[in-house]
TrEMBL record:
It comes from Sphingomonas xanthus. The keyword Methyltransferase does not apply. This is Ligase-associated DNA damage response exonuclease. The keyword Hydrolase applies. Gene3D superfamilies: 3.40.50.10890, Ribonuclease Z/Hydroxyacylglutathione hydrolase-like (3.60.15.10). Its EC number is 3.1.-.-. Residues 11-173 form the Metallo-beta-lactamase domain.
Length: 332
């Protein structure tokens, strides 16, 4: 009797689905790629054809230019070779999906990156029972328990209002995190213009085109220093301490990332206001998700594999580690 999941094979560059002749999130160009979401450690250019949600394809178009697109909306299924493939919301960023593959009575879910917290920029994660659940483990240690997102946004707004004449400069990844921070601010009633670094403009414009109402955004570059006082400014994490940021009016340097739980990371980046806002599941959410999905096996990728493997073994769930290359935390 063949082992469970013998028709899917992990390689360093991605997961090969033999009866579909397709790769999931390959890190090098392939003839047929199934892509969970638009972050660069999962979505690469140069593939022969790309199967993904329409939103992920739009993001890849902005980043990589024209490609052979095969859009699949949530809840729809397509047949590739002998495999039935469908895309299910992952709650990570706009367009992010878990990929459900069904073949000869077996169900495999590649979750990609996912989170369980509410996010105003994308549909919530949908629990999808399966035989094999391929899970990330970015924050797969018990120390990672993310606080309430609203309370972190309230801390940001409190600092802005308490220290007049300064600005709050928030480092946030260009795809997903920046737009989420903006929408969380809008949800707390902050209707002022939000200023952004030029590197965020294309994806913020795309989010707006795809129906995410970000409100009034203005480019911070070239704006008189006086105008930026008492403002919130968003930039890529790499711009927090570069020459661009030095022209801002006495910035309170903040960063929105799950890694801000680790004080040393905040100190290394000279972050004055660490905001623990993550687009990945924390430890409790990872383990809760595995319980709810109830798989026979868990395959664990890119992250703290050992702790999550140990938890699975304690709960009589077979687990294995996948050594995939090219996965990064992308300043979550």
């Amino acid at each position: 009797m063949p082992r469970l999941g013998s028709w899917i094979e992990p390689f360093p560059e991605g997961i090969y689905v033999r009866p579909a002749d397709a790769w999931v999130d390959p890190s090098s160009p392939k003839p047929r790629a199934l892509v969970t979401h638009g972050h660069a450690d999962h979505a690469r250019g140069g593939h022969g054809e790309v199967w993904a949600t329409p939103e992920t394809l739009a993001i890849m178009g902005v980043r990589y230019g024209p490609q052979v697109e095969r859009p699949v909306t949530y809840g729809k299924s397509v047949r590739l070779g002998e495999v039935e493939v469908s895309f299910v919301p992952a709650g990570h960023v706009l367009g992010s999906a878990q990929i459900l593959m069904e073949y000869r009575g077996e169900r495999v879910v590649v979750s990609g990156d996912f989170k369980r917290r509410a996010d105003p920029t994308c549909p919530p994660f949908v629990v999808t029972p399966c035989d094999i659940f391929i899970s990330e483990a970015t924050f797969g240690l018990p120390v990672f328990r993310h606080p309430d997102t609203g309370s972190e946004i309230d801390r940001l707004l409190h600092r802005l209002r308490a220290e007049r004449g300064r600005c709050v400069l928030v480092g946030a990844y260009a795809l997903g995190k920046a737009q989420r921070v903006i929408m969380e601010l809008r949800g707390r009633g902050f209707d002022d213009p939000i200023y952004i670094h030029g590197a965020l403009e294309r994806l913020c414009n795309l989010y707006a085109e795809l129906g995410v109402p970000l409100g009034e955004l203005r480019l911070a570059t070239g704006v008189p220093k006086e105008e930026l006082k008492d403002r919130i400014i968003l930039c890529p994490p790499g711009a927090l301490n570069d020459r661009w940021s030095r022209r801002l009016p006495d910035p309170i340097t903040a960063m929105a990332s799950g890694w801000m739980r680790i004080r040393q990371r905040a100190r290394q980046r000279n972050v004055e206001l660490p905001l623990i806002i993550s687009d990945h599941a924390d430890w409790d959410e990872l383990t809760r998700t595995i319980r709810e999905v109830a798989p026979k096996e868990v395959w664990i990728t890119h992250g703290r594999e050992d702790a999550l493997m140990h938890w699975c073994q304690l709960h009589q769930i077979k687990a294995r580690e996948l050594n995939l290359v090219g996965y990064e935390d992308e300043d979550d």
